[in-house]
């Protein structure tokens, strides 16, 4: 949300506002001036006061905290939360909590009175009483009151609209299964998968069977559980059972360019490996060529620079029969709404992702909401029979829906959780499992007593320890590997040698990454990046001066379709072939692409990056830096995501012992109404 979303440029003080509204506005202003609320949060409260001169103080407080919640990734504000005393907001220091409690002292703790105050304002639409009012995201009242009566939710209109649109689209996609020739499906799935051990459930095979009959399939699982392995077999099965396979149109996408490139490369390799299984019946190599490159979601939808407008939408849908989206945990609410709107009604959507990773930076935790109950299964009798007929898979009794009517997730029959990791079975996998289970003591013990060389812990250290680690010599990869290669540049007229050198420098850089929980401060990504850059210069590993220099790693922070770069892309500034100045080179699967440094205005130095920015990537060695104080940012999901970026070596860097155990106790819970919208009574 921005001031543009509020339809204003600035919010002047309102003259003549009667008490107690003036006191409420003054209290909110004080919280903003102290930095505990954003100026944008305070501005929304002022905006409500301007629109409704009779607005109750409760509305002004609710508006400011709603904006604060949206800024922290929530899609709404639970009204009942406003009645708690003290009103504990995650990440707020004690002084901020005391100031907020003082502001709320004269306000009710009765949810009914808060609801009355909100409903009394013409700035608030009660969705239960006027569900069709303001159907567009930018029309009608600024705020919407929705949710079940016992747990009402307050929304900014845009996010209420997005949530409703996502739920409506998903309900429609889940409503009617696609007719499947189960004998034909069984034939091909048996060819594509090895027989499972007796008494076990082949979750990957089940996921393919579910996706064959669904216009929506959700495949969730941790690292190494085979999500892209499953997707490759699904593509082969879809090609095999389609009546006109030569016309099957498939698109691949992911939230970031790095994740998209990894998806394409993984699927291409997996499809090539399947050719021997299918013989001459299916031309999987030709099929892979027809699919083409994977794209970012912004590129797929045709994002227009500097606007929210997209080339593809409900009136101009995508030309696709199957869309596979990887790293779906990173897809925020607005993007999911746009994606579903642009997808033809007949098309299959397959979402791949880890529900336990960090949610998107922007509002919403869509994959987590969609995967509610995934661990329990809740598979109905029809799904159980279909799985046996189409895949020969017996779904365990413990994961079948009860015979009596109980509330179950609407998307249970469309969701499969992959439960066995085929790659993360070593020390890193054990550490990730301990963190996922919230067992901080076990996680700390694994880090301190690992003898394999895969896990390392630097606790009770200062930020310089992370800088030293990033440039260290030793068996574990560091940035030193790529920095040393910088000095081995071939002759200017050696074009093939330059291409090989560029690829080797990029590959060496991608072996290690320093990840931070926060952006700012000496323990944050920005401070760490500056410190590593300075240390590399002092060690004569880097040369050049100024903003641009050979070897500068950069992270793209804004989409630029014309330049062909997107938010989250990571590249290296290197000399162009023939000595034609610096260009930023990006790995695009097995190939390289480059952009002139003059065209890249929105980048930052990427010797360190936040865990959020690293989603969709993996590195041989990942170091996770925890700050001494990060409040709600330091969560189980953040630590889990950081650990699972490491393929071979993981190092924890923390200023004090016990910080890891403390972090894994805090779970990220984002307020949302999507789960409730996707719940139904099962018979």
UniProtKB/TrEMBL annotation:
Ranges where the UvrD-like helicase C-terminal domain occurs: 606-648
Lineage: Bacteria, Pseudomonadati, Pseudomonadota, Betaproteobacteria, Burkholderiales
Residue span, RecBCD enzyme subunit RecD N-terminal domain: 34-147
NCBIfam families xrefs: recD (TIGR01447)
Assembly and interaction partners: Heterotrimer of RecB, RecC and RecD. All subunits contribute to DNA-binding.
GO CC annotation, single: exodeoxyribonuclease V complex
Coiled coil: none
Function: A helicase/nuclease that prepares dsDNA breaks (DSB) for recombinational DNA repair. Binds to DSBs and unwinds DNA via a highly rapid and processive ATP-dependent bidirectional helicase activity. Unwinds dsDNA until it encounters a Chi (crossover hotspot instigator) sequence from the 3' direction. Cuts ssDNA a few nucleotides 3' to the Chi site. The properties and activities of the enzyme are changed at Chi. The Chi-altered holoenzyme produces a long 3'-ssDNA overhang and facilitates RecA-binding to the ssDNA for homologous DNA recombination and repair.
Organism of this sequence: Simplicispira hankyongi
SUPFAM superfamilies assigned to the protein according to its UniProt record, in alphabetical order: P-loop containing nucleoside triphosphate hydrolases (SSF52540)
Keywords: ATP-binding, DNA damage, DNA repair, DNA-binding, Exonuclease, Helicase, Hydrolase, Isomerase, Nuclease, Nucleotide-binding
Name the record gives this protein: RecBCD enzyme subunit RecD
Gene3D superfamilies from the UniProt entry: P-loop containing nucleotide triphosphate hydrolases, RecBCD complex, subunit RecD, N-terminal domain
Encoding gene (name): recD
Keyword Nucleotide-binding attributed: yes
EC code: 5.6.2.3
Remaining remarks: In the RecBCD complex, RecB has a slow 3'-5' helicase, an exonuclease activity and loads RecA onto ssDNA, RecD has a fast 5'-3' helicase activity, while RecC stimulates the ATPase and processivity of the RecB helicase and contributes to recognition of the Chi site.
GO biological process: double-strand break repair via homologous recombination
Family, per entry: Belongs to the RecD family.
Catalytically driven reaction(s): ATP + H2O = ADP + phosphate + H(+)
């Amino acid at each position: 949300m921005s001031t543009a979303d509020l339809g204003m440029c600035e919010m002047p003080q309102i003259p003549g506002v009667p008490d107690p509204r003036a006191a409420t506005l003054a209290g909110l202003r004080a919280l903003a001036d102290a930095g505990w609320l954003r100026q944008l949060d305070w501005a929304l409260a002022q905006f409500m006061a301007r629109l409704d001169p009779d607005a109750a103080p409760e509305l002004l407080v609710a508006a400011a905290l709603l904006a604060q919640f949206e800024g922290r990734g929530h899609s709404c504000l639970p009204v009942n939360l406003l009645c708690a005393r003290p009103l504990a907001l995650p990440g707020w220091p004690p002084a901020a909590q005391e100031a907020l409690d003082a502001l709320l002292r004269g306000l009710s703790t009765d949810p009914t009175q808060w609801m009355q105050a909100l409903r009394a304002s013409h700035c608030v639409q009660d969705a239960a009483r006027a569900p069709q009012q303001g159907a567009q995201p930018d029309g009608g009242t600024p705020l919407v009151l929705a949710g079940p009566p016992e747990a009402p939710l307050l929304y900014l209109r845009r996010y209420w609209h997005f949530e409703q649109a996502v739920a409506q689209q998903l309900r429609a996609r889940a409503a009617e299964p696609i007719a499947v020739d189960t004998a034909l499906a069984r034939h091909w799935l048996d060819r594509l998968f090895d027989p499972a051990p007796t008494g076990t459930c082949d979750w990957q095979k089940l996921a393919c069977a579910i996706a064959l009959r669904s216009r929506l399939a959700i495949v969730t699982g941790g690292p190494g559980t085979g999500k892209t392995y499953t997707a490759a077999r699904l593509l082969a099965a879809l090609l095999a059972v389609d009546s006109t396979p030569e016309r099957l149109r498939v698109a691949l996408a992911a939230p970031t360019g790095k994740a998209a490139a990894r998806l394409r490369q993984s699927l291409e390799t997996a499809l090539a490996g399947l050719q021997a299984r299918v013989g001459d019946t299916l031309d999987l190599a030709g099929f892979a060529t027809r699919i083409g490159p994977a794209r970012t979601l912004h590129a797929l939808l045709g994002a227009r620079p500097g606007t929210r407008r997209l080339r593809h939408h409900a009136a101009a849908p995508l030309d696709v029969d199957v869309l596979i989206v990887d790293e779906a945990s990173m897809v925020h609410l607005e993007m999911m709404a746009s994606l579903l709107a642009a997808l033809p009604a007949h098309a299959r959507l397959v979402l791949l992702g880890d529900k336990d990773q960090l949610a998107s930076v922007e509002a919403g935790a869509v994959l987590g909401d969609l995967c509610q109950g995934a661990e329990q299964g809740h598979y109905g009798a029809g799904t159980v029979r279909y799985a046996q007929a189409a895949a020969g898979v017996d779904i365990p009794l413990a994961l079948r829906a009860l015979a009596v009517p109980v509330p179950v997730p609407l998307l249970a029959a469309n969701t499969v959780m992959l439960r066995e990791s085929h790659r993360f079975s070593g020390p890193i996998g054990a550490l990730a499992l301990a963190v996922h289970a919230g067992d901080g003591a076990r996680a700390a013990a694994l880090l301190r007593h690992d003898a394999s060389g895969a896990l390392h812990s630097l606790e009770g250290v200062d930020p310089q320890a992370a800088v030293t680690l990033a440039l260290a010599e030793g068996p574990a990869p560091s940035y030193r590997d790529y920095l040393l290669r910088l000095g081995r540049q071939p002759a200017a007229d050696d074009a093939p040698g330059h291409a090989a050198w560029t690829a080797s420098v990029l590959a060496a850089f991608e072996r290690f990454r320093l990840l931070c929980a926060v952006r700012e401060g000496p323990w944050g990504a920005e401070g760490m990046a500056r410190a590593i850059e300075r240390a590399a210069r002092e060690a004569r590993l880097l040369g050049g001066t100024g903003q641009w220099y050979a070897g500068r790693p950069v992270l793209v922070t804004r989409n630029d379709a014309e330049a062909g770069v997107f938010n989250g892309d990571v590249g290296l500034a290197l000399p162009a072939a023939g000595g034609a100045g610096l260009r930023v080179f990006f790995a695009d699967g097995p190939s390289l692409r480059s952009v002139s440094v003059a065209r890249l205005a929105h980048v930052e130095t990427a010797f360190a990056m936040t865990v959020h920015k690293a989603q969709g990537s993996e590195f041989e060695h990942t170091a996770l830096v925890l700050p001494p104080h990060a409040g709600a940012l330091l969560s189980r999901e953040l630590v889990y995501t950081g650990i699972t970026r490491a393929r071979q070596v993981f190092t924890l860097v923390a200023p004090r012992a016990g910080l890891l155990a403390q972090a894994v106790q805090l779970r990220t819970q984002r307020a949302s109404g999507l789960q409730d919208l996707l719940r139904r009574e099962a018979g």
